[in-house]
């Protein structure tokens, strides 16, 4: 990869649509309405819902922010420099297995879907940024070019 343009608009739009759907599902599941039922520890479930809800919401918001930055770049609203500087996807904070154990299967599946989406976007972000780290910084390239020129001139 290496250039923002290597991440195509259809890919960004597809991921953005998927992230919006997941964000809506996350909001609906983790709306923190009262938890009731006869066969569970209500405090433990409320704590797990709260902690995993915050992690899941943060995860999906980070993905959406990354995708919005990509969309802004692709539409010409921000420069490549701004995208490289401010468009990094933060690392994910994985779910806690003890919390997941007390959650409903549907909730666990939703959390897993957000983790998978974050991982896909993180791979895109890392591959794109790898292209920049493979290139020497501009100052280093300039020094190398000057060194070559000085050697040629003194020969």
Fold topology:
Elements: H1 9-29, H2 42-74, H3 80-86, H4 97-102, H5 105-133, H6 138-154
Give me some keywords for this one.
single chain, mainly alpha, Helicase, Ruva Protein, domain 3
Structure characterization notes:
The chain is mainly alpha-helical and 155 residues long. The protein has a single domain, classed as Helicase, Ruva Protein, domain 3. It has 6 helices and no strands. Helix 1 packs antiparallel against helix 2, helix 1 packs antiparallel against helix 5 and helix 2 runs parallel beside helix 5. It is elongated, with a radius of gyration of 22 Å.
Quote the average pLDDT. 86
Order of helices and strands: HHHHHH
Kindly report how far apart the N and C termini lie.
39 Å
Structural class comes to: mainly alpha
Shape: elongated
Major sheet details = none
Counted beta strands: 0
Domain count: the total is 1
Quaternary state, please?
A: single chain
Gyration radius over CA: 22 Å
Helical percentage? over 70%
CATH superfamily: Protein of unknown function DUF1465
Which CATH architecture?
A: Orthogonal Bundle
Low-confidence stretches: none
